[in-house]
Design a protein that fits this description.
The chain is of the alpha+beta class. It has 4 helices and 3 strands. Helix content is 58%, strand content 18%. The two termini are 31 Å apart.
Amino acid sequence: MQEPTFLILTALAAGPQHGYGVITDVERISDGQVRLRAGTLYAAFDRLQEEGLIIEDREEIVDGRVRRYYRLTGDGAARLAAEAERMRRHAKAATARLRAIGSGGMA
Protein backbone atom coordinates (compact mmCIF):
# COMPACT_ATOMS: atom_id res chain seq x y z
CA MET A 1 0.00 0.00 0.00
CA GLN A 2 1.35 3.41 -0.95
CA GLU A 3 1.86 5.98 1.80
CA PRO A 4 -0.83 8.42 0.56
CA THR A 5 -3.40 5.60 0.51
CA PHE A 6 -2.41 4.53 4.02
CA LEU A 7 -2.75 8.11 5.24
CA ILE A 8 -6.12 8.65 3.54
CA LEU A 9 -7.49 5.50 5.15
CA THR A 10 -5.98 6.56 8.47
CA ALA A 11 -7.68 9.95 8.21
CA LEU A 12 -11.03 8.28 7.49
CA ALA A 13 -10.57 5.90 10.42
CA ALA A 14 -11.35 8.90 12.66
CA GLY A 15 -14.80 9.18 11.06
CA PRO A 16 -16.43 10.51 7.89
CA GLN A 17 -14.68 13.48 6.33
CA HIS A 18 -14.96 15.60 3.20
CA GLY A 19 -12.06 16.03 0.81
CA TYR A 20 -10.54 19.16 2.30
CA GLY A 21 -10.79 17.59 5.77
CA VAL A 22 -8.86 14.55 4.54
CA ILE A 23 -6.22 16.75 2.89
CA THR A 24 -5.61 18.69 6.11
CA ASP A 25 -5.75 15.57 8.29
CA VAL A 26 -3.21 13.75 6.10
CA GLU A 27 -0.89 16.73 6.33
CA ARG A 28 -1.29 16.76 10.12
CA ILE A 29 -0.83 12.99 10.50
CA SER A 30 2.34 13.08 8.39
CA ASP A 31 3.76 16.15 10.17
CA GLY A 32 3.61 18.03 6.88
CA GLN A 33 5.54 15.39 4.95
CA VAL A 34 2.59 14.46 2.70
CA ARG A 35 0.52 17.15 1.01
CA LEU A 36 -2.23 15.82 -1.20
CA ARG A 37 -3.60 17.79 -4.11
CA ALA A 38 -7.33 17.71 -4.74
CA GLY A 39 -6.96 15.86 -8.06
CA THR A 40 -4.79 13.19 -6.46
CA LEU A 41 -7.19 12.80 -3.55
CA TYR A 42 -10.31 12.44 -5.66
CA ALA A 43 -8.62 9.94 -7.97
CA ALA A 44 -7.67 7.98 -4.83
CA PHE A 45 -11.25 8.25 -3.54
CA ASP A 46 -12.54 6.78 -6.82
CA ARG A 47 -10.05 3.90 -6.66
CA LEU A 48 -10.71 3.22 -2.97
CA GLN A 49 -14.47 3.18 -3.61
CA GLU A 50 -13.99 0.72 -6.49
CA GLU A 51 -11.97 -1.50 -4.12
CA GLY A 52 -14.72 -1.30 -1.50
CA LEU A 53 -12.44 0.31 1.09
CA ILE A 54 -14.42 3.55 1.42
CA ILE A 55 -17.93 4.68 0.55
CA GLU A 56 -19.66 7.99 0.20
CA ASP A 57 -21.28 8.73 3.56
CA ARG A 58 -23.39 11.79 2.79
CA GLU A 59 -23.55 15.08 0.93
CA GLU A 60 -24.32 18.56 2.16
CA ILE A 61 -24.53 21.94 0.48
CA VAL A 62 -22.10 24.54 1.84
CA ASP A 63 -22.02 28.00 0.23
CA GLY A 64 -23.90 26.61 -2.75
CA ARG A 65 -21.41 23.80 -3.34
CA VAL A 66 -21.80 20.09 -2.77
CA ARG A 67 -19.54 18.72 -0.04
CA ARG A 68 -19.23 14.92 -0.11
CA TYR A 69 -18.21 13.01 2.97
CA TYR A 70 -16.51 9.63 2.74
CA ARG A 71 -16.09 6.93 5.33
CA LEU A 72 -14.10 3.77 5.82
CA THR A 73 -15.88 0.46 5.21
CA GLY A 74 -15.35 -2.69 7.27
CA ASP A 75 -13.05 -3.98 4.53
CA GLY A 76 -11.21 -0.66 4.56
CA ALA A 77 -10.68 -0.86 8.31
CA ALA A 78 -9.44 -4.45 8.01
CA ARG A 79 -7.04 -3.50 5.19
CA LEU A 80 -5.73 -0.51 7.18
CA ALA A 81 -5.24 -2.69 10.28
CA ALA A 82 -3.35 -5.31 8.25
CA GLU A 83 -1.10 -2.65 6.71
CA ALA A 84 -0.44 -1.02 10.09
CA GLU A 85 0.53 -4.43 11.50
CA ARG A 86 2.82 -5.12 8.54
CA MET A 87 4.52 -1.76 9.04
CA ARG A 88 4.83 -2.40 12.79
CA ARG A 89 6.60 -5.72 12.14
CA HIS A 90 9.00 -4.07 9.70
CA ALA A 91 9.74 -1.23 12.13
CA LYS A 92 10.33 -3.75 14.91
CA ALA A 93 12.85 -5.63 12.73
CA ALA A 94 14.64 -2.40 11.79
CA THR A 95 14.77 -1.26 15.42
CA ALA A 96 16.17 -4.61 16.56
CA ARG A 97 18.90 -4.48 13.92
CA LEU A 98 19.80 -0.91 14.78
CA ARG A 99 20.07 -1.88 18.46
CA ALA A 100 22.32 -4.77 17.49
CA ILE A 101 24.85 -2.48 15.82
CA GLY A 102 24.78 -0.10 18.79
CA SER A 103 26.01 3.45 18.66
CA GLY A 104 29.03 2.48 16.53
CA GLY A 105 26.89 2.28 13.41
CA MET A 106 24.83 5.35 14.12
CA ALA A 107 27.25 8.19 13.37
